[in-house]
Amino acid sequence: PVLVVDFGAQYAQLIARRVREASLYSEVVPHTMPVEEMLAKQPQAVVLSGGPSSVYADEAPALDAALLEAGVPVFGICYGFQAMVTALGGTVERTGLREYGATRASVRDTTSTLFNGQPDEQSVWMSHGDSVSEAPEGMRVTATTPGAEVAAFEDDERKLYGVQWHPEVLHSTFGQRVLENFLLRGAGLEASWTPANMAEELVEQVREQVGESRAICAMSGGVDSSVAAALVHKAIGDRLTCVFVDHGLLREGEAEQVEKDFVAATGVDLVVVDAKERYLEALAGVSDPEEKRKIIGREFIRVFEQAARDIVHDRGDNEHPVEFLVQGTLYPDVVESGGGTGAANIKSHHNVGGLPEDLQFSLVEPLKALFKDEVRQVGLELGVPEGIVWRQPFPGPGLGIRIVGEVTAERLDVLRAADKIVREELTLAELDREIWQCPVVLLADVRSVGVQGDGRTYGHPIVLRPVSSEDAMTADWTRLPYEVLAKISGRITNEVPEVNRVVLDVTSKPPGTIEWE
Ligand code: XMP
């Protein structure tokens, strides 16, 4: 593998992802791992990540020079670059010249290993307070930036390379090329890693973790939990049971899609719990958004716990108790909640509406190091239906938080009918991949006057909320073509009698969130 040594940056997984993009297999290891252990993994190349530390800090993680003498090609990034310098006898200084954000690098040699085939000026993204003032002996300085005399170096003899900036972020225009040049030219590796390999590797890891035990998976029908379920199913077969809670807050056809398409494609053992009545009762008379969310989350836990007990009971197999809970946590979820191992739970809770604190299961999170597009690739590889793989995000609390006001069976029917039309028309206009998601919201407590067929109407407005986004942290409203909007509006007001007005939400996030509640 290509080992990415994590010096405590939130970039380590991103570097690993970039290595995968270069079609090479990568593994992230902590900087605390002894060099012998790293070498035991027989790395073909090593990338040292950036880190939040200054090489001067007391607790600064040091780099064992033995790693640089093992004959394995090494590429240092940012902190990793400086750690190399310190280990090899160069000088890192507090120059007072700090560089944060985008700057320009001047490349001295565009025929060098790292910069081959690139322009001599390139935009790079930096984040450093210390700078290398003197390169270690034998290192050829190949680039400089306004704040760093030594911004890149190479030694083809010892196969040691480094850059002060972050080639893994998109703001570094030639970043991927620099990394690939290291991997393919510097280390001489052959690009051969594919999504198929990635799926296989993940399946193997799950097999190892779960052993002979049973696992259950809380299925939402979304991409992440579906792909996680498919992976785990491939690993442990029918020792996995998926539980899908139909809380009645789903969109038209959603439960059926999971029951039919997903099961048909993957053959997983699926238990569908019909909890519609239970949810309607619990939500009766409640219109405060936070209260609704709490109720939906609480009921989910209860239904899910009961389902888990039933599974153990039904299988009557005490040799293999349900020990594991499968979650479709992705890497951005981990980052969002502050990184680290424990942090992953925060978003997982959020995903399913909250799992109990004293959860009796160990978590299996096979997608934890991946990004959404990679998850989609793995999903396609495992035969998860395209309709699920390309699904837009849908919140766990579902339509419950898209009815502004009390949630009732009638209102859910109205919203479901309008939502179905919107989804049909967006699909027809081939806009699904262009928009991140398009919540359809029923303003159940608002009425307005209209006229239809010579008569007065007094109906409810439907809000369209199409958004474009990279990661849902920020978003902009999508400029849908007028014809598409007109068609949607016409169909909703004609086909859904309770609705006499369709309005478009033209707010970005911030200040508006994507959902209305
Ligand atoms: P907001 O409304 O916060 O939404 O801008 C950001 C993204 O998260 C989704 N969302 C949720 N997903 N459980 C989920 O699994 C939730 O409780 C939840 N609330 C919002 C939302 O659809 C959007 O994609």
From TrEMBL:
CDD domains: GATase1_GMP_Synthase, GMP_synthase_C. This is GMP synthase [glutamine-hydrolyzing]. InterPro entries: Class_I_gatase-like, GATASE, GMP_synth_C, GMP_synth_GATase, GMP_synthase, GMPS_ATP_PPase_dom, NAD/GMP_synthase, Rossmann-like_a/b/a_fold. It comes from Luteipulveratus flavus. PANTHER family: GMP SYNTHASE [GLUTAMINE-HYDROLYZING] (PTHR11922:SF2), GMP SYNTHASE-RELATED (PTHR11922). GO terms for molecular function: GMP synthase (glutamine-hydrolyzing) activity. Pfam families: GATase, GMP_synt_C, NAD_synthase. It catalyses: XMP + L-glutamine + ATP + H2O = GMP + L-glutamate + AMP + diphosphate + 2 H(+).
